[in-house]
Design a protein that fits this description.
It is a single chain. The chain is built from 13 helices and 13 strands. By secondary structure, the protein is an alpha/beta fold. The protein folds into 2 domains: about 5-130 and about 290-310, Rossmann fold, CATH 3.40.50.720; about 135-290 and about 320-335, Dihydrodipicolinate Reductase, domain 2, CATH 3.30.360.10. The strands form 2 sheets. It has a 7-stranded mixed sheet with strand order 12-11-7-10-9-8-13. Strands 3-2-1-4-5-6 form a 6-stranded parallel sheet, sandwiched between helices. The chain is globular.
């Protein structure tokens, strides 16, 4: 975890947090230590009060938050299908905005949000927290420096231990826009390459929580990148062993792996091998706790004018296009080029 130095203590700065659900509550815990004042709002006022009482924050209504004149920055952590509309409305505040991914579930809404931010001349930081993970960062640097030679293949996976609640799944946009979009962003960021074409296989397992929303509970994606590099991405909502996130980069001189730590939810069956030795990761909040703090440190640097936005709406749009192509491939059973 990064040290909480003076450079990330925003005394005198007021940060608004709109959304006090699971991810919002986690952000509140981080921001309460760093902002001069934290203001919390949620459509369910009881959630806002609960988070505010826990962290010594002020409570406002969502309408009051979006009409505030005292904010220095705003964090949007509401349900996925509300991001774009709220971002367009919040842009009128004229302050930097942190928005959880994805910005929207379709290209046009993402473009509108981007246009609103540019018209208001405000920076928008999109929440792709893996960019702040030490191993993903090392993979990017080592690849750029030629440490593994020419890149040939990338293998990725994001496997949830158990599915989220039905109401979350209904508004999430599905496994590609909600879950694998993190892998798509990491793939672009680490390799510097773009995805040209995808082929997808997936199944809803006959379960209403997925079938009712044309979603997949298990999916495997084959991706062709610029320069002929090949990649795979696996995702599951039922990885009972634990939360498993990995990225393998195979080059002509070596192979680097992200996620192969002592809490990896696998078991080696090789004689005499005791790996891993610790309890598996349970979920994304535990796995990426340090990254979420670094991510908000980076946003506070944007608020203070010390740094540029590390993940933009344009980045979010590029990953969304990949996710949309994956959905088309799954529905139509064919390879799909990423537009």
């Amino acid at each position: 975890m990064l040290p909480l130095g003076k450079e990330h203590t925003m005394s005198g700065k007021t940060i608004g947090l709109l959304g006090a659900g699971r991810i919002g509550a986690m952000h509140a815990g981080i921001l309460a230590k760093k902002a001069g004042k934290l203001v919390v709002a949620d459509p369910a006022s009881w959630r806002a009060r609960r988070v505010a009482e826990l962290h010594g924050a002020e409570v406002r209504s969502p309408e009051g938050m979006l009409a505030s004149e005292d904010l220095d920055g705003l964090v949007l952590a509401t349900p996925t299908d509300t991001h774009a509309g709220l971002l367009c409305e919040a842009a009128r505040l004229g302050v930097p905005i942190f928005c959880e991914k994805p910005v929207a579930l379709d290209v046009e809404s993402t473009r509108r949000a981007n246009a609103a931010a540019k018209e208001a001349n405000i920076p928008v930081h999109v929440g792709f927290q893996r960019r702040f993970d030490a191993a993903y960062s090392a993979a990017r640097e080592r690849l750029a420096e030629g440490e593994i030679g020419d890149l040939r293949r990338v293998h990725m996976g994001t496997l949830d231990q158990a599915p989220a609640a039905r109401e979350f799944l209904a508004a999430s946009g599905g496994i590609f826009k909600d879950c694998l979009i993190h892998d798509f962003d990491a793939l672009r960021w680490v390799t510097g390459l773009e995805v040209e074409e995808v082929v997808v296989y997936g199944t809803d397992l006959g379960l209403p929580d997925f079938a009712d929303f044309a979603d997949a509970a298990e999916a495997v994606v084959l991706l062709r990148l610029t320069g002929g590099v090949l990649a795979t991405a696996h995702s599951s909502r039922f990885n009972g062993a634990g939360y498993d996130v990995r990225m393998e980069l195979h080059g002509t001189k070596g192979t680097d792996v992200v996620g192969m730590d002592e809490r990896l939810p696998v078991r080696s069956l090789e004689p005499g091998v005791a790996y891993p030795r610790q309890e598996p990761w349970a979920d994304f909040i535990a796995r990426f706790a340090d990254c979420y703090e670094r991510e908000l440190d980076a946003f506070l640097d944007v608020v203070s004018g010390r740094a540029p936005v590390p993940a933009t709406i344009d980045d979010a749009l590029a990953s969304l296009r990949i996710a949309i192509a994956c959905g088309t491939s799954l529905r139509e059973g064919r390879p799909v080029r990423v537009s």
